[in-house]
Amino acid sequence: MSRLKYLSAYSEQTQSQVAQLIAQDKLATVLNSRYGKAHDYRTDKALYNYVQELRSAYLRNAEPVNKVEYDSKIHVINHALGLHTAIARVQGGKLKAKHEIRVATMFKAVPMEFLTMIAVHELAHLKEKQHDKAFYQLCTHMEPNYHQYEFDLRLYLTHLDNGGSKLWDASSTASN
């Protein structure tokens, strides 16, 4: 089932159910029924403010995030939804890190839940560098439905990968 590359870590039963939805042309209907409109954090500034709100609510003692922006160079094909980078430099005899979060531009027009999942994932890297148990515990602390949103985002990517059209657009925004 190469058409399900975003779901390769899931069970054969789950992959079979998704393949059946694709064959019946119902995957888009399922996603549309679960999620309403696209978020309205369209600009880098709005995205930055949203991520800072999440950081303030859950990671007050974490290092600051200096930059948050949409990045058209991030390709989901390379399994990257967003990137967290720490740029280290010496300043006044001390080693300082400048943290940046970049989110793939294609996520400007997705439901709020998907953007939250990506932001939470990248913020978790401020505390936990590896994708281990502690990392995912932190993600679910910040967003209890983290795993469901990640799965549904993978369903959406599978939908797009199989020739489906975008389900949400910039004109169908939700209020904050």
Automatic annotation (TrEMBL):
Cited InterPro entries: UTP_pyrophosphatase-like (IPR053136), YgjP-like_metallopeptidase (IPR002725)
Q: Which domain of life is it from?
A: Bacteria
Segments forming domain YgjP-like metallopeptidase: 93-153
One Pfam family, short name please?
A: YgjP-like
Per the UniProt record, which residue ranges are transmembrane?
none
Q: Which PANTHER family match?
A: UNCHARACTERIZED PROTEIN YGJP, UTP PYROPHOSPHATASE
Protein name (record): DUF45 domain-containing protein
